[in-house]
Amino acid sequence: MDGYLNDAGLRQRLEELRAQHRALDDQVRAAHECGMTDQLKLMRLKRRKLQLKDEITFLEDQLNPDIIA
């Protein structure tokens, strides 16, 4: 990540990642619907989706940290 981002920067990055995740989700869904046989490509799409999800979760945690009282 690019150093320290303020909340606005984190939120913008979060929206970008969510858009990328939705686009990959659409690609995976389309691949399943058309009977894609390139399993390697499908695995790569799914792996990238998981990476994006992990980064999304990390950013969400940065924006909404758990406060232990």
UniProtKB/TrEMBL annotation:
Residue runs in coiled coils: 7-62
Key words of the record: Coiled coil
Record InterPro entries: DUF465, DUF465_sf
Protein name listed in UniProt: DUF465 domain-containing protein
